[in-house]
Amino acid sequence: MYLVSMRRFPEAEREIKIAQDLDPLSVIISLGVGEIQEWQRNYDAAYRQFQKTMELDPNFCGTYGHLATIYEHKGLLRDAMEQLKKIEVLKGHDSEAVEIDLAYKKAAYPGVTQFDARRDLDMKAQGKYVPALVIAEDYLRLGKKAEAYHWLEMAYEERDSGLAFLQVEAGFDSLRNDPQFQQLIKKIGLS
């Protein structure tokens, strides 16, 4: 995935194809094939690949998270919410799935986004590990840019491994041309 983080997509696709040929039943490799498409904003190709990943293991939560992201970026917010509920059910958190449903009924998808942010911050306050990068994306989805930057800096201080994908993660597209974001990219060593 180093190649992806450096936006070297053709090379990444060649390498993941070799891996998939060697282990065609690997859920992680199948997910990686879809991620590469998702990170290139080829959402239809990513969707098809994630469907194949679900055929390999319908209980693998990561697939549903990526599907939620795709639906969100395509504006299919009810479908995105349904994927988020599936993740919670698969993790055995039925009550959280119900809360997501209620948040959606009360305030549509922004309610789900607020629920995610509140839950992540509550977990962090309880001493549970929540990557700062996840909280940064929560705030960005809520339109709170200053708070997002604060948590991006926290992610940098924590050496969050997810920062390697900051250049390709669609959740941060709204910051791409921002000088502060470009400075962070440079500080991380991605440019």
Keywords:
mainly alpha, 72% helix, 10 helices, 191 residues
What is the β-strand count?
0
Could you give a short account of the major beta sheet?
none
Overall helicity: over 70%
Strand-pairing-aware structural class:
mainly alpha
Average residue-wise pLDDT: 95
Low-confidence stretches: none
Along the chain, the helix and strand elements come as HHHHHHHHHH
The number of helical segments is 10
What form results from the Cα inertia axes? globular
Distance between the termini: 16 Å
Strand content: under 5%
Radius of gyration: 17 Å
Summarize the structure in words.
The protein has 10 helices and no strands. 72% of the residues lie in helices and 0% in strands. The chain is mostly helical and 191 residues long. The two termini are 16 Å apart.
How is this fold's topology laid out?
Elements: H1 2-5, H2 9-22, H3 27-39, H4 43-56, H5 61-73, H6 77-90, H7 94-125, H8 132-141, H9 145-157, H10 179-188
Helix pairs in contact: 2-3, 3-4, 4-5, 5-6, 6-7, 7-8, 8-9, 9-10
Summarize the entry for a quick read.
The chain is mostly helical and 191 residues long. The chain has helices spanning 2-5, 9-22, 27-39, 43-56, 61-73, 77-90, 94-125, 132-141, 145-157, 179-188.
